[in-house]
Amino acid sequence: MSAVSRRPQAPRLVAVSGEQESEFVRTYEVTGGRTRPRRLLAVDSVLGPGPAAPASGLPPVHDQIVALCRGGPRSVAELAGTLRRPATSVKVVVSDLIDHHVLALHTARPADTYGDDEAPDVEVLAALLEGLRKKFPDARSLLRAG
Q1: Which residues make beta-bridge pairs with 48?
Q2: pLDDT at position 18, please?
Q3: How far apart are the first and last CA of the chain?
């Protein structure tokens, strides 16, 4: 019996929804075969540029993610959708870029760090709370039941 060696086929050119053709790279090539990111990231994690410049010679997907994040804060879900890649593979790449300080994870600011002119308007928050109570009058009983 002779063993047939299966080598990955060469990347092929594909057209993505009418856009110009681009080289398709398999997911395992983008992530180096890894299936889990080193950092815990959610699909709604928001990213922006970090303090370090990206290394030269990064794979195209890495460069695309960095470019998108330099254009403004982006969520993992948005990056995955824009690049037409699985969110898990985008998390692996993003995790690596965070580790190299090329990307930074945006976090919400604690309420006590806002200045007087930036503080949330108490009247707006009270109106929001009242609206929620009207829309969901039995919400507290549902929380207690669970």
Answers
A1: 104
A2: 45
A3: 61
**Cα 55 to Cα 63: distance, rounded to the nearest angstrom:** 10
How many Cα neighbours within 13 Å face the side chain of 78? 13
Alpha-carbon separation of residue 15 from 19, 87, 94 (angstroms): 6, 21, 25
Question: Which residues touch 75 (CB under 8 Å, ≥6 apart)?
Answer: 43, 44, 45, 46, 47
Q: Which amino acid is at 27?
A: T
Using a 10 angstrom Cβ sphere, with 0-12 exposed, 13-18 middle and 19 or more buried, the burial of residue 72 is exposed
Contact 51, 101 (CB under 8 A): yes
Contact (Cβ atoms closer than 8 angstroms) between residue 91 and residue 83: no
Is the pLDDT at 40 greater than 80? The verdict is yes
DSSP letters spanning 51-76? SSPPPTT--HHHHHHHHHHHTS-EEH
